[in-house]
């Protein structure tokens, strides 16, 4: 899309994605700006994004980061092409791919869902190679949505490209931003068209900017015959947990924007992949927060940590939340892992 290009500066990636959200919202509402020759098509939009890649970019040499990204993009592009998809654009470490046939075949959506599953499966071999090369493991979230979009050549005399725009594209981006690492989320439309072959977890509702009512999302677990694909589970909270009592401040995130207000809570257990905490502030499931950790044991204040609230319970006026980390500095992750082992009395072999 004209005016939005992939950045080599990871600090700018969040800004670019927010600009993409806003641009898609605006173009969807301004029909008079649709390009001549544009057409309405039903497509399945797949958007993927690497979790916590900004912290990796800050911690490793630029040449190594570029090589890592190129290995990742090459493998993902091969899979997308094999399933009949078209890479529409790269935005930082994100991929936007489209699945549409000339006759708008219903199997387009099936192919998109299978592609997403195989992309997650491929992350195991990518991470094995990363570790062999002395690089960290990387994790990806994928969001899919199916709907009618405007397709056409968009831009200016200086630069233009054939792409798709509309509310359904923006919704796919919003869905992707709600994923955890290793997770694939399907919109209601995408799930309805693939329900006969997909296995999903219990649906949940999510409030999305631009929608008056909450949308229902479905986490893909597997795709049945004849495809037989199982999405690997990457649940970080399977790591050991240590009981703690640590005060902390957190902020809510709205998409890629961090709300300025701070709220107070207490961490009750901690692992290298997440935490369990209480707060008097109202917490909604599936919201995102940002915070830093400081304890006597750590000795230092962590970098910013981002997390997604997986579950919320109420107890005697408190909100109890399970949080999985979505972005954490690699060194902070190592420090937390050592701290948890020390608190649990686990000694290295």
Ordered list of secondary-structure elements with their pairings:
Elements: H1 13-29, E1 39-51, H2 53-59, H3 62-82, E2 86-91, E3 94-99, H4 107-132, E4 139-155, E5 160-165, H5 167-177, E6 184-186, H6 188-194, E7 198-200, E8 204-206, E9 215-223, E10 229-230, E11 242-254, E12 257-258, E13 263-270, E14 274-279, E15 288-291, E16 305-315, E17 318-327, H7 330-344
Parallel strand pairs: 4-6
Antiparallel strand pairs: 1-3, 1-4, 2-3, 4-5, 6-9, 7-9, 8-9, 9-10, 11-12, 11-13, 11-15, 13-14, 14-17, 15-16, 16-17
Helix pairs in contact: 1-5, 3-4
Can you give a write-up of this model?
- With 349 residues, the protein is an alpha+beta fold.
- It folds into 2 domains: 10-230, Alpha-Beta Plaits, CATH 3.30.70.1230; 236-344, Thrombin, subunit H.
- It has 7 helices and 17 strands.
- The strands form 2 sheets. Strands 1, 2, 3, 4, 5, 6, 7, 8, 9 and 10 form a 10-stranded mixed beta sheet that branches. A 6-stranded antiparallel beta barrel has the order 11-13-14-17-16-15.
- The chain starts with 12 loop residues before the first helix and ends in a 5-residue tail after the last helix.
- Mean pLDDT is 85; it is low at 1-6 and 29-35.
Strand fraction equals 25-35%
Radius of gyration (Å): 21 Å
Give a count of the beta strands, DSSP E runs of length 2 or more.
Answer: 17
- Residue share in helix: 25-40%
Major sheet size, sense and barrel closure: 10 strands, mixed
Q: What is the H/E string?
A: HEHHEEHEEHEHEEEEEEEEEEEH
**Global geometry:** globular
CATH superfamily of the largest domain: Nucleotide cyclase, GGDEF domain
